[in-house]
Specification:
341 residues; alpha/beta; Ubiquitin-like (UB roll); Elongation Factor Tu (Ef-tu), domain 3; Rossmann fold; 3 domains; six-stranded antiparallel β-sheet; six-stranded mixed β-sheet; 7 helices; 17% helix; 33% strand
């Protein structure tokens, strides 16, 4: 029987996935999965179940009234989940917290496969994905409990959804709680995980893409590129990867491999340190050339520390350019809840 994967992304950043059968309405599928999406009439009259379809195809039928959903709203991607019948996988933004729908963040455990040190800059954390691991959207993060403590750290997936192993790029923090555990971690240990979460995720591409990564903020873009390669999009994709020191440039070989496999993908790396030996010294804003900005007809995704996010926002203001869409996630080395927009 045909079914479609529906990602419900709630206002508090929690994402839950449901399977919606052919000819089944999203609201009915959510209720079947014990997720109480907002509703009142369930007949397309009140508009209480109004959400936004971020991606996917669907049929809204003609049994709802204009007062519940105007044509202008429908043209902007708003939907009534009580009438929406998907014809593909979809991502739906729900304008209430997950707790209001009597659901919450998924919790599961994963086994440590390995931790690899990438010099003194970062680690790659590799976990074996358990059979009950929830799906996620490329760009999202999870909270991973630090063994032996009551604290957690937030890390973005660098692997693609559905992979047998989940990978994360983690900044090495001297004296850091998780970094300290990495130094004594043993394969086979169990980690407690909550997620996925976050509104920073790849939307269906309809125009050129500009990715801006700062340090270990490269991680979500590796996940996105894996998905874009499978989808075989022909739209231009350019990534600018900026770091503080030469040794902070990690996993550049992964980017080279993507560039070899994706003819529409290019990337630039730059180092802020004035004493760098790298051929491009400076910050990401210095390498946002007109040919990657497409006069604003571009979707910009940015993951980096707060000063980088602020600098990019200021740069757009200074050059009087407003991208069609601008999604960003701020993080700090010990982030427990990144800020996404």
């Amino acid at each position: 029987m045909t079914s479609y994967r529906i990602a419900l992304n709630f206002e508090d950043g929690v994402t839950r996935f449901i399977e919606c059968g052919a000819n089944e309405k999203v609201l009915d599928s959510a209720f079947r999965n014990r997720i109480n999406l907002p509703m009142d009439c369930s007949d397309g009259v009140c508009g209480t179940c109004k959400c936004r379809a971020e991606s996917g195809s669907y049929d809204m039928g003609d049994e709802y009234i204009d007062e519940a959903l105007t044509q202008d709203e429908a043209n902007e991607g708003l939907v009534l989940t009580c009438q929406m019948v998907p014809s593909s996988d979809c991502v739906i933004s729900v304008p209430v917290p997950s707790t209001a729908c009597k659901t919450g963040t998924a919790q599961f455990s994963a086994t440590l496969a390995e931790v690899s040190s990438l010099g003194d800059a970062a680690y790659e954390l590799v976990l074996d994905a358990p059979s009950d691991a929830p799906d996620f959207l490329p760009g999202q993060y999870v909270n991973i409990g630090v063994p032996g403590s009551d604290q957690h750290r937030s890390y973005s997936f660098s692997s693609a959804p559905g992979s047998a192993r989940m990978t994360f790029l983690v900044k090495q923090v001297p004296g850091g709680l998780m970094s300290g555990w990495f130094n004594r971690a043993q394969s086979g240990e169990t980690l407690d995980i909550k997620g996925p979460m976050g509104s920073f995720y790849l939307r269906t591409p309809t125009r050129p893409l500009l990715f801006l990564a700062g340090g270990t903020g490269l991680a979500p873009f590796l996940s996105m590129l894996e998905v874009l390669e499978k989808q075989a999009h022909a739209l231009p994709i350019h990534l600018i990867y900026g770091v503080t020191r030469d040794q902070d440039l990690v996993m550049v070989d992964r980017l080279v491999n993507f560039a070899n496999r994706l003819p529409n993908f290019t990337f630039t790396t730059c180092v802020a340190d004035p004493q760098t030996g790298h051929d491009k010294q400076g910050f990401v804003t210095q390498y946002m050339s007109p040919d990657v900005l497409h006069d604003g007809d571009v979707d910009v995704y940015l993951c980096g520390p707060p000063p980088m996010v602020d600098a990019v926002q200021k740069h757009f203001k200074d050059i009087a350019l407003s991208p069609v869409s601008f999604h960003y996630e701020k993080f700090t080395p010990n982030a427990t809840n990144p800020i996404s927009e």
